From TrEMBL:
Species in which this protein is naturally found: Panacagrimonas perspica
Name the UniProt record assigns to this protein: NNP family nitrate/nitrite transporter-like MFS transporter
Lineage: Bacteria, Pseudomonadati, Pseudomonadota, Gammaproteobacteria, Nevskiales
Keywords: Membrane, Nitrate assimilation, Transmembrane, Transmembrane helix
Location in the cell: Membrane
Signal peptide span: none
A GO-annotated cellular component: membrane
Amino acid sequence: MSVSPAATLEKATRITLPSLATPQMRAFHLTWMAFFVCFFAWFACAPLMPVIKGQFGLTKDQIANINIAAVAVTILVRLIIGPLCDRYGPRKAYTGLLLIGAIPVFGVAASQSYESFLFFRLLIGAIGASFVITQYHTSVMFAPNVVGTANAAAAGWGNAGGGATQALMPLLLAAVITAGADAAFGWRIALMVPGVLMIIVGVLYWKYTQDCPAGNFDTLRATGLMPDTGKKVGWVSFKKACANYRVWLLFVTYAACFGVEIFIHNVAASYYVDKFGLSLKAAGFAAGTFGLLALFARALGGIVSDRIARSRGLDGRTLLLFVLILGEGLGLLWFSQMESVVFAIIAMVSFGLFVHMACGATYALVPFIDRQALGGVAGIIGAGGNVGAVAAGFLMKATATPQQAFFILGGFVTLSAACAIAVRFSAEHKTREQALYEKAVAERTAMTA
C-alpha cells in the first residue's frame, strides 16, 4: 500500500515491516538495529568471562565488581539521555552514543590488567542507555493504537543482541583461535567486532533517520513548527517526570524485569559452567536461549498490551503488567531450585518469557504516563532497570551461592508486582488517551478503506 506524503507527517497508525519508505519505518528498523549492536557490545564480555577470568586470575569478588560496573553507569546515562532526546532529538543522541560508545569497547579489548578492564567495562555500560533512545524514537513515530507493539518489538529485537552475544562470541573466539591466534589474544580480537558494528550503524542512523514524522527537531524549531523552549527543555522534562508517582512505580517494576534480564545475561554463562560443568560453547548456547526470547517475547508483551487496551484502556495495560511480573517472580523461584541442567534451562526459558513480556508491557505503558515529559519518563523508568541489575549484582556478591541469590531475587520480584497494580490514572487522563486512541484507529481505517 502506498502512503501519501501528508501521511508521513503524522504518527504511523500501522507497522509495515517490509517497508523502508516512510520515516517512521526507517526509524523503527534502524532503532532496533542500533539497540541490537549496543546490546551485543554491552554484554560481549559476559560469555567470554571464563577465559578472561583465567588470564587475569580474577576472584569471585572481582568478577562481581565487573558485572556491577557493566550496569552501574547506565543508571546515570539513562537519566541524562532521555532529556537529551527532548532537547537535541533521538537522531543526534543515538549517533553520538554509538560513535562515542565504541571507544570503550575497543578499550576493554586492549586492557592489560583487572583495573583497566574494570574501568573500560564501567564505561561500556553507558551504551545501555541506547534503550531509552530506542523507546523514545518509536514513541514519537507511532500512534497510540500501535505504539505498544512498536516499542516492544523494537526493544525486543534489540534485546536479542544479548542472546546473540551469548551464542556468537564463543563461536567467534573459536574461529579466531582456529585461524591461528591463542585464547589470550583471541578474546581481544573477538571483542573488537561489536565496536566496529557500532560505528557502521552510527553512520547509517545519522544518514537515514529523522527525529519525528515531520522532520528533525532543530529544523522544526528554526521554522517555527515546533516550540523552542531553550536549553532548559530537557531539565523541565526531567523535573516533570520526577514529580509523577507513576514513574517511580514503573521504575520499580522495570527494575524487577529488565534488571533481572541484564543480571541473567551477566551471570548465566558462568553459572552453567560452574554449576553444571558445561563447556564454554554449551554454556553460551544455554544462556543464549534466555536472550533470544527477546526476538518475540518482548514484542508479544507490547502486542497483548495494545490488544487489551482496545477494551480495557490503560487499566488493562497495568493489569497485564501485574500478571507478568508476578509470573516472573514465581518462575525465578522455581529456577533457583533446579539441580538438573535440563530442568534449569526449562525453568530459565519459562521465567524468561515473563521477563521479556513484562519489559514490553512496561514500555507499552510508558508513552501514556506524560506526553509532555516523554524523555524524562523514559529515562527514569529505564534507569530503574539498571538499578535492579546493580542491586542483583550486590545480592550475588553477598550470598553464599548463585542459587541463593536467585531465590531471594525471586521473592523481591514477586512482591514488586504490587507496584504495577498501584499505577492509576484519573478519569480525565483516561478520557483524553482514549480519544487519541480512537483517532488513531479511525485514521488507520481510513487509510485501508
